[in-house]
Amino acid sequence: MEEKVxxxxxxxxxxxxxxxxxxxxxxxxxxxxxxxxxxTLSQQCMKQLEEAELIIEEHSVS
Length: 62
Prior knowledge:
By secondary structure, the protein is mainly α. It has helices at about 5-20, 30-60.
């Protein structure tokens, strides 16, 4: 069974990626891979936030 990554874990990884991308020693190939991973993580975070917002809205209406 796949373990769900928390938004906190995703944000920490995004911070790591931003830090790595700021380094002069990262190759173009590695930069592109990091960028792609970062975009995926960003999309996952947005999805989790949207799901949380829906839950909050559902409980606010009740």
